[in-house]
Design a protein that fits this description.
It contains twelve helices and ten strands. Helix 7 links the parallel strand 7 and strand 8.
């Protein structure tokens, strides 16, 4: 692994080997998502808690202060929307020249295993890896399931994660599931947990994140369950404690309630 690749990975994955990625890229297919109407305002109070920001180039340019930011993971796949026919029909939206110009620490691309566009999205990943490896830029593969939530089981996610690793992804983002350790054990590169739909309670979030970390994930890529919360700072601080301070679910709930009650 070359120096540039090591340096960029060290910026997004901290010294303890863990990471807390904050995604605000949802608008690339959802439009002005609730809570992200003004992205700069959304993330400002969360700045001290996340390790890297997962964002599109448009929002990066328009809403992120280049003089005061955390490491950037750039969303570079897209081309579909929630009202379109199939979310899986994605292409690469950002050139390698633009990736380099924006000086990002990593890039992220979705793959849709088992969909009509499986090969297309896997080739998107492969071509991106080929280009980014030349410049020491890590690629994070996202095992997307679109609207088919029933696919979130260990067998499917384990298959999807392993294929992403085989094609050269340096990090794989996938969903938590029962028997999550089977997913992690079958994937030879670091795994981060996707947040998925907003949970009904804070405790549910802490439970799946804690379980995933105990079973081998290095961290999370989790947005809606933070910035759509009534208490986003409390959520972020509690999750940071699980990820970087070995807090369990009980301790995370205590931190959440302490911060919530001081606001």
């Amino acid at each position: 692994m070359n120096w540039g690749m090591k340096n960029r990975l060290a910026q997004v994955i901290k010294e303890d080997g863990h990471c807390f990625f904050m995604p605000i890229d949802h608008g690339y297919f959802q439009g002005p998502t609730s809570g992200l109407e003004k992205p700069a305002e959304t993330i400002k109070p969360l700045f001290d808690y996340y390790d890297a920001l997962f964002v599109t180039r448009g929002v990066l340019r328009a809403a992120i202060d280049p003089a005061h930011t955390k490491p950037i993971i750039l969303r570079v796949s897209g081309g579909t929307s929630m009202i379109g026919k199939d979310l899986a029909n994605e292409g690469i939206t950002t050139s390698i020249e633009e990736i380099i110009r924006l000086n990002v620490q990593a890039v992220g691309v979705s793959v849709f295993i088992g969909s009509e566009y499986e090969q297309q999205t896997l080739m998107n990943l492969s071509k991106l890896v080929n280009e980014c490896e030349d410049y020491g830029i890590p690629v994070m593969a996202v095992t997307a399931v679109g609207k088919e939530l029933e696919k979130r089981d260990a067998r499917y996610l384990g298959l999807a994660s392993r294929i992403c690793a085989e094609l050269g992804a340096r990090i794989v983002k996938t969903y938590w599931c029962e028997d999550f350790d089977k997913v992690v054990k079958g994937c030879p590169v670091p795994v981060v947990i996707a947040g998925g739909p907003k949970c009904e309670t804070e405790k549910q979030v802490f439970e799946f994140v804690y379980d995933g970390m105990q079973k081998g994930a290095i961290g999370v890529n989790l947005g809606r369950n933070v910035w759509q919360s009534k208490y986003p700072v409390a959520m972020a601080k509690a999750l940071q404690a699980i990820i970087h301070k070995d807090a369990d679910v009980k301790k995370a709930c205590e931190i959440f309630n302490e911060i919530k009650n001081t606001k």
